[in-house]
Write a structure and sequence with these properties.
The complex is a heterodimer of chains A (about 425) and B (about 200). Chain A is built from 15 helices and 15 strands. With about 425 residues, chain A is an alpha/beta fold. Chain A has 3 domains: about 240 residues, Rossmann fold (3-Layer(aba) Sandwich), CATH 3.40.50.970; about 130 residues, 3-Layer(aba) Sandwich (Rossmann fold); about 30 residues, no CATH class. In chain A, helix 14 crosses helix 15. The longest helix of chain A has 30 residues. Chain A starts with a strand and ends in an 8-residue tail after the last helix. With about 200 residues, chain B is of the alpha/beta class. Chain B has one domain: Pyruvate-ferredoxin Oxidoreductase, domain 3 (3-Layer(aba) Sandwich), CATH 3.40.920.10. Chain B is about 35% helix and about 20% strand. Chain B is built from 5 helices and 6 strands. Chain B has a 6-stranded mixed sheet, with helices on one face. The chains are: A alpha/beta (about 425), B alpha/beta (about 200). Chains A and B meet through strand 8 and helix 10 of A and helix 1, strand 2 and strand 3 of B.
């Protein structure tokens, strides 16, 4: 049914239609509205049978999800930012044990400095944990990806994370077509676990494994991710057949045919990028976009095929590795190994800084002219940075950086942009 | 592609985010595409808050904040001294202030001097909200005013959005407030249009 509603509400209702049997979560902005809404659906009896377990921390949330999943229950949780880091040991365990938990990650920056706003640092921090990580461009896709996530996770026994931009998507009220219960039931069969904690047929799960088999257990995790690479597009096309719209898959191409410049990005910024690319196309620029939906497993072959005809690739990403540069860019560069395509990294939207079409227009025009530096921090306030560097050069006890920068800016009222 | 971009300014607790959300729901009721979102601050009671709404005939893809609004709605004019309310305002923009005073009495005549006079409107939204809802929540009043001011959303759609969000006496009060504001702003607009030089 077509409705105008908040992204968090849409995701909660989509999750409820997947009939999770155990939901355990600890509130943290900007994920809170999602689990509040799921909690209301459990309390009202609309989502039943389902046990909503209030836990004391994110570590407990993922631990309860692991326990519940091991007993054969369809298990769901959601978190953001520091919450994800707090549960990280259990996040690795869920993947290592092959338990198909589905988790929504409402993407948010990681401190310090503490910041509640959106970027992708949290998702990047667990990219090697063994989870499938799918990124939603819109709230429609966020809702749809949850159906596909449960299906994929349970088929392959791989936990799956649906990443959606915190605030930008979770708090946006827009049009979403929510699937009917009967259609979801037809798309998502009941969970049939490969391993089950059952008192009548006891097994242990979580053996210590030494050098004799650890590599093989890990290798099988790699195999499952490779299987996911094959199944993600198949599940997306089955979804399209059942629900009549394209959501999910490995990647989305937008106007890449004959493009000299191709922008690569994850998540909601793809919407703004499409508007800008349309404008630049109207001005005669041969430019297109590849939106990566499946970040893990990373679809290297599909990315290579989509970018092989380009002269240059601009990766716009909401995270970076301080000692290296781009994270997504590194994966893209490896996928392009041996091809004569230049890859530039643009770090944008950190800690909630809006990525404006004006800034993207200037950036992509520069890129199309072949004048973009290998690493750019979009809209960086250079004066602010220089003042702190000068302070650090002139005195040993220059003080805490974050406080210094805020003092330089003066009282910050509510910023519009 | 016609897109109407609306920016709301107010303080935490006044219903700034809810107003933008309800406008998006009302536009949806009218069959339009709409997108509403807050300015993503950590909202605290009394702190400046902005929210945004886009209404269009086609799907809306951009996620940037509304930097150049077609319509500015101010729930609390005391923000004038704290926030650059008029930043990026388009020359043909509509402005709707919640106040019992005039633009000149508020000392902001110069900020809006480049704008079209008949598009600068005021409505005593707090007073209307207190009378109908019993609380200082001017949002619904301003939505009724928005409908009269721009015609970009219908009054029945605003009423439907309010009834979807609220129930019982609260819904009735909000609807009555929106209807009174619709009539008030409609008349004010008519007077300004007649007074405007041809």
């Amino acid at each position: 049914m077509l409705r105008q509603l908040e992204g968090s509400q849409a995701v909660a209702e989509a999750v409820a239609r997947c009939r999770p049997e155990v939901v355990c979560a600890y509130p943290i902005s900007p994920q809170t509205h999602i689990i509040e809404a799921v909690g209301r659906l459990v309390k009202s009896g609309e989502l039943a049978p389902c046990e909503f377990i209030n836990v004391e921390s994110e570590f407990a949330a993922m631990s309860v999800a692991i326990g519940a999943s091991a007993t054969g229950a369809r298990s769901y949780t959601a978190t953001s930012s520091q919450g994800l880091l707090f549960m990280i040991e259990a996040v690795y365990n869920a993947a290592g044990l092959g338990l198909p938990i589905v988790m929504t990650l409402a993407n948010r920056a990681i401190g310090a400095p503490i910041n509640i706003w959106n970027d992708h640092s949290d998702a990047m921090a667990v990219r090697d944990a063994g989870w499938v990580q799918l990124f939603a461009e819109t709230n429609q896709e966020a809702a749809d990806l949850h159906l596909q996530a449960f299906r994929l996770a349970e088929e392959l026994s791989v936990p799956t994370m649906v990443c959606m931009d915190g605030f930008i998507l979770t708090h946006a009220v827009e049009r979403v077509d929510l699937p009917d219960q009967a259609a979801v039931d037809a798309f998502l069969p009941p969970y049939e676990p490969r391993q089950l904690l059952d008192p009548d047929d006891p097994v242990s799960i979580g053996a210590m494994v030494g050098p004799e088999a650890f590599t093989e257990v890990r290798y099988l995790g790699y195999v499952r991710q490779q299987q996911a690479l094959a199944r993600i597009p198949e599940i997306a096309s089955e979804f399209a057949e059942a629900f009549g719209r394209d959501s999910g898959g490995l990647l989305h191409r937008y106007r890449t045919e004959d493009a000299h410049t191709v922008v690569v990005a994850l998540g909601s910024v793809l919407g703004t990028l499409k508007d800008v690319v349309d404008e630049l196309r109207d001005g005669g620029n041969r430019i297109g976009i590849v939106g990566v939906t499946s970040f893990r497993p990373f679809p290297s072959v599909a990315v290579r095929a989509a970018l092989a005809g380009a002269k240059r690739v601009v990766v716009v990403e909401k995270a970076f590795s301080a000692g290296l540069g781009g994270v997504l860019s590194t994966d893209v560069a490896i996928a392009l190994n041996g091809l004569p395509v230049a890859v530039a990294t643009v770090v944008a939207g950190l800690g909630g800084r809006p990525i404006t079409s004006a800034s993207l227009r200037t950036l992509l025009t520069t890129a199309a002219d072949g004048r973009l530096e290998p690493l750019t921090f979009l809209d960086l306030d250079r004066d602010l940075v220089e003042r702190e560097l000068a302070r650090m050069a002139s005195e040993r006890r220059s003080g805490p950086t974050a406080e210094n920068l805020l003092r330089d800016l003066g009282a910050v009222a509510s910023r519009i942009g | 592609m016609t897109v109407t971009e609306v920016r709301f300014h107010g303080r935490g607790g006044q219903g700034v985010v809810t107003a933008a959300e309800l406008l998006a729901v009302a536009a949806f009721e009218d069959g339009a595409y709409a997108q509403a979102f807050p300015s993503f601050g950590s909202e605290r009671t009394g702190a400046p808050v902005a929210s945004f709404c886009r209404i269009a005939d086609v799907p809306i893809r951009t996620r940037e904040p509304v930097m150049e609004p077609d319509v500015l709605i101010v729930l609390d004019p005391t923000l004038l001294h704290q926030v650059d309310l008029f930043a990026g305002l388009r020359p043909d923009a509509y402005v709707l202030l919640n106040t019992v005073k005039s633009f000149d009495e508020l000392g902001i005549g110069e900020f809006v001097s480049g704008l079209r006079h008949e598009r600068l409107l005021t409505v005593p939204a707090t007073e209307m909200a207190l009378r109908h809802v019993g609380r200082s929540v001017p949002g619904s009043v301003l939505l009724g005013g928005y409908a009269a001011m721009t015609g970009r959303v219908s009054l029945p759609a605003v009423v439907a959005a309010l009834r979807e969000r609220f129930s019982g006496a609260v819904a009735d009060g909000n609807v009555a407030a929106a209807e009174e504001a619709f009539a008030f702003v409609g008349q004010e607009r008519e007077e300004l249009r007649r007074a405007a030089p041809a």
